[in-house]
Amino acid sequence: MYDVIVVGLGPAGSTASRDLAKAGLRVLGVDKEKFPRYKSCGGCISTKIERILDFDISGAIEERVKGATYTYKSGRTMDILSDRPVGYNVMRDTFDALLLSKAKEACAEIIEGVRVVKAADNGSSVSVTLADGRSFGAKFLVGADGSSGFVGRELFGLNPKEAAVSITAEVPLPRKARPYSDKLFIDFGSVPYGYGWIFPKENCLSVGIAGDACKVGGKIKDYFNEFVTTHEALKGLDLSQRIGWTVPIYYDGAAPSVRGRVLVIGDSGHLVDPFLGEGIYYAIRTAKSAASVIIDNIGGKKELAAYQDWLEKEIHPEFKSAGKLADLVYNHPRLWYSILEKDPDIMLRFYDVIRGEEECASFYEWVLAKVKSKPWKILRRWVESRLLPS
Ligand SMILES: Cc1cc2nc3c(=O)[nH]c(=O)nc-3n(C[C@H](O)[C@H](O)[C@H](O)COP(=O)(O)OP(=O)(O)OC[C@H]3O[C@@H](n4cnc5c(N)ncnc54)[C@H](O)[C@@H]3O)c2cc1C
Question: Distance (Å, rounded) from C-alpha 219 to C-alpha 230?
Answer without folding.
Answer: 17
